C-alpha cells in the first residue's frame, strides 16, 4: 500500500496538516466539507506512481486548526496558496471535491499563475441545488441543535438519520454514509463552529448562494476536467453537465452508479481518468494578471 504520509506545519500561527505521496508533477487535492485529506487515500496508490500528491486538511477540518476566522472560498484559496509557497511549489494541477471544487475554482481565479489544470469532482459552485441537510445548517437554530446532534449521547442518531434518508429515498446508501459520517466528525466546538461558518459562506436555506457561472467561459484557456457520480444526491450531476456545456474545451466524465464520492466508489477509474487528462493536455502557463483584461 502506498504511504500517504501526514505532516504538520504552522501557517500564520495556525497548525495545518497535509499529506503527501509520490513524486513528479504536482497534484493538489482539496477535500469537501466535514472531510479531510484522507478522503483521497483510495486513489493515491495509482496516482503516486506518476505524480507528487499534496493534500491538505483545510482549516477547520481534519487535524488542522479550527480558528475563529474567515472560512470563505477566498480565504481557503489563499491558505492553499500559502501552503504551496511553504513547500516551494510554484504550480500544480488543482483537484477539488465538493466544497474543494469551489475552492479550486476560486484558486484558479485568484492565482492563475499557479494553476496548470483544473479538476472538479462533484463540485460546489455550479448550481443552486444542494442536499437538504446542508441547507438546514444555514438555519439560525443550527448553532444550538448541532452540538446536541453530534454529542456522545447522540451517537445513535446517525443510524436514525440513515434510516430516515433511506426510507424517504432522499439519498442512496453511499451518500447517506457521506452525510452521517461528516456530521459525526463534528465532535468539538471548534469543528462545529468552522463547519457552520463554512456552510453559511456558500449555502443559505434556498441552496448554494455562491456561483461560478459567470466565469466559466474563462476555462477556455485552462484545461478542465469535470468528474461526477450519476447518482449524486448531494449535488446533482446536472450541475456537471451544465458546467461542461459552459466551459469551452472541458472534459466530462460521469461515473454510472456512483454518488457524491466517485473517487471512493471507483478509485481505479478515477485515477486512470485523472492521469489520462494530465497526460493528454498541456499545462496552462498563465500570468498573475491574466484575467485583468
TrEMBL record:
What GO molecular functions are on record for this protein? hydrolase activity
* Hydrolase as UniProt keyword: yes
Q: Which GO terms describe its cellular component?
A: membrane
Q: Per UniProt, which keywords does this protein have?
A: Hydrolase
* SUPFAM superfamilies attached to this UniProt entry: alpha/beta-Hydrolases
Q: Where is the AB hydrolase-1 domain?
A: 25-267
Q: Please indicate if the UniProt record lists Zinc as a keyword.
A: no
Instruction: Fetch the PANTHER family from UniProt.
Output: AB HYDROLASE SUPERFAMILY PROTEIN YCLE (PTHR43798:SF31), MONOACYLGLYCEROL LIPASE (PTHR43798)
Output this protein's name: Alpha/beta hydrolase
Q: Which organism is it from?
A: Solirubrobacter ginsenosidimutans
Amino acid at each position: 500500500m502506498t504511504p500517504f504520509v501526514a505532516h504538520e506545519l504552522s501557517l500564520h500561527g495556525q497548525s495545518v496538516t497535509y499529506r503527501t505521496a509520490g513524486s513528479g508533477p504536482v497534484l493538489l487535492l482539496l477535500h469537501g466539507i466535514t472531510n479531510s485529506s484522507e478522503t483521497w487515500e483510495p486513489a493515491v496508490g495509482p496516482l503516486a506512481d506518476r505524480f507528487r500528491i499534496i493534500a491538505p486538511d483545510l482549516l477547520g477540518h481534519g487535524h488542522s486548526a479550527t480558528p475563529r476566522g474567515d472560512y470563505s472560498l477566498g480565504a481557503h484559496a489563499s491558505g492553499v496558496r500559502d501552503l504551496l509557497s511553504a513547500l516551494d511549489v510554484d504550480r500544480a494541477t488543482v483537484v477539488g471535491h465538493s466544497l474543494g471544487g469551489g475552492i479550486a475554482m476560486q484558486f484558479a481565479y485568484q492565482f492563475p499563475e499557479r494553476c496548470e489544470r483544473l479538476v472538479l469532482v462533484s463540485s460546489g459552485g455550479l448550481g443552486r441545488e444542494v442536499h437538504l441537510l446542508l441547507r438546514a445548517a444555514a438555519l439560525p437554530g443550527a448553532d444550538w441543535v448541532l452540538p446536541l446532534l453530534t454529542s456522545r449521547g447522540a451517537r445513535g442518531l446517525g443510524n436514525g438519520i440513515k434510516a430516515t434518508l433511506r426510507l424517504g429515498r432522499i439519498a442512496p446508501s453511499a451518500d447517506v454514509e457521506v452525510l452521517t459520517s461528516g456530521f459525526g466528525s463534528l465532535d468539538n466546538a471548534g469543528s462545529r463552529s468552522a463547519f457552520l461558518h463554512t456552510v453559511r459562506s456558500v449555502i443559505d436555506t434556498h441552496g448554494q448562494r455562491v456561483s461560478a457561472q459567470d466565469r466559466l467561459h474563462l476555462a477556455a484557456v485552462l484545461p478542465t476536467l469535470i468528474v461526477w457520480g450519476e447518482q449524486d444526491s448531494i449535488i446533482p450531476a446536472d450541475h456537471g453537465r451544465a458546467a461542461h456545456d459552459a466551459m469551452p474545451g472541458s472534459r466530462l466524465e460521469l461515473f454510472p452508479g456512483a454518488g457524491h464520492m466517485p473517487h471512493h466508489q471507483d478509485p481505479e477509474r478515477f485515477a486512470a481518468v485523472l492521469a489520462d487528462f494530465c497526460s493528454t493536455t498541456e499545462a496552462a502557463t498563465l500570468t498573475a494578471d491574466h484575467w485583468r483584461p
